[in-house]
Amino acid sequence: MKRHGDVSSRSEITEQVERTTSEMDEKEADLDKIASDVETVRETLDNLDLEGTQECAEELETAFNETEDVTVEEFDSEDESLEQIQDESQEHEGKIEGHRDSSESDLGKVSDASSRIELKVAQNELVKAKEAALRDIEFLAEQIDQAREAREKSDEIQSQLRARVQSNG
């Protein structure tokens, strides 16, 4: 009998999907805060009168421009981190799809075997194997959908946040 090797358990697959979804949500929230900070810095600079002394006006402009620069740098860093999590999620999706393909292949092999087996009691037992493969295929398809939906949502939110930061940059 073959060994199961490094095949993931259902709970491991579910935990991975949930973990990357949670990490994407956290990064999105961080990026939203940073984007709000960038907008606040820009709005404040735009709303300053700058009619004190020339020196003060220059210092204020310099300080706000530097504040914007470091805030945008922080956004870019967090954005890159989110990108890595999304890549990890997509890689995990691919692995889950591989597991699903394997389960579908196994289902086909079990079906082929059951069509060649004459003994009715043996055929009845193979129905259990078919049902197990079908449950696995359904579970894996659900996990793929959840991972894909979370990543696509994250991609959309990330695009919106990038647009906010780049709109006045």
Short description:
This protein is mostly helical. It is 88% helix and 0% strand. It has helices spanning 10-47, 54-116, 120-166.
Structure description:
- With about 170 residues, the chain is mainly α.
- The chain has one domain (about 10-165).
- Helix content is about 90%, strand content about 0%.
- Helix 1 (about 10-45) runs antiparallel to helix 2.
- The longest helix has about 60 residues, at about 55-115.
- The N and C termini lie far apart (about 60 Å).
- The mean pLDDT is about 95.
Highlighted features:
169 residues, 88% helix
List the helices and strands and how they pair.
Blueprint: H1 10-47, H2 54-116, H3 120-166
Helix pairs in contact: 1-2, 1-3, 2-3
Average pLDDT: 94
Total strand count, please? 0
- What string gives the helices and strands in order? HHH
| Fraction in beta strands | under 5%
Helix % is over 70%
User: Class by helix and strand content?
Assistant: mainly alpha
User: How many helical stretches?
Assistant: 3
The tally of structural domains comes to: 1
**Low-confidence sequence ranges:** none
Instruction: Report the span from N to C terminus.
Output: 62 Å
Major β-sheet profile: none
